Amino acid sequence: MLCPEVWRFPAPSHEIVQKTGNVDLRLTGRDPVRSGIRVHPFNQSITIVLPDVSSIPIELETALADSDHYLVRNVSLQTLANRAFIEGFIKQGKFYAVSFRTRLDTDDCVAVVPPGTLVLHLNKETFQSLGLEGQVSEFARKRNSKYVVRIDLHTLQPESKFFKRVRDCLGRDCLGRFDLQVAWTPPEPPAGVRSRVCPSSIAKYFADLASTDQNLKVELMPTMIKTHQEYGLNVPVFNISEDDDNGKEYCSAGELIEYMGMLALSCNTEEEEYLNSYDFCGERVEIGNAKVMHWNGFFTPEQVEAVHNAMRRALDVQDYVPWMGMYVQGFSDSPIGFRMRENYFHTDGENCYAIVMNPKGDFLWYQVVGNNKMPK
After folding, report:
1. Whole-number pLDDT of residue 314
2. Which PANTHER family does the entry mention (predicted)?
């Protein structure tokens, strides 16, 4: 067929997880929002949208003041199975790593998540030459073209034969070397001790290895920050229910998230009388401006939670704002996504979420992931 009717093909579906509820802004314990943040290990960008604020609160501006990560080039995965590395960074603190600029559908990919799980997402040829046990990828069962190997580094015993076998396999030429984005969250200091181990200790460890391995290089990857402001807006009112006892109608969760995304992208939200103008249903409030702040880099769940906590503190102080929103985007080619679930790659690799909260403590959790269904 020379001119297939591609418009007849349905768009790839997504799985949307939506939660609403109410939390105490001042409490720091576990709640549904923080629980969702903690199960998403790899985060590429964070965006906050702050309607009707005169300036970005200082606690939000400084929430990621020390969020630079490191790129370790040409590292052998055998390095991750060293006794010193396991004792110093796997069993102490939280170590995160994901392969840099690899494609999940065609390349060998690597990830490490706390408490020390090494995940290898391998092509068939690499897996068959490696010599470690694994299983066929959930999304490649028909062709058996991709395999997943999981190794628990935390429980490896240096004196065991299995430990030696894992090290030998990870050092084989068939696996090669990887460029890894790495970040390490140090453990909390003991009670009464104020000083804390510096997160850059992980860079020092690899830099010391580079002195004996000329191929290995360590680079600092600074976090990219961008801010902008939108003026003269009519923003939707955030309400947990889409209607109330007074007969007022509120926009849906999808419309609210869509509007927040338009502000983040500096889209024109003015209403015009033509067919493709954007509008939303429900109550709205007129505000003077909205501040938007973007971070791009490699962020751990602890860093994302720090931004979320700062937003909650800002809401507690600036109780006149209609709401504040936060959007987090994961890596589309990371081997795993939410809750250690294998990431999808045939039609999409979505793993992102948005959080909207108001001064009353009402929250909306809006999570989008791939549908995890093979295309027919």
Report:
1. 96
2. RIBONUCLEASE P PROTEIN SUBUNIT P40
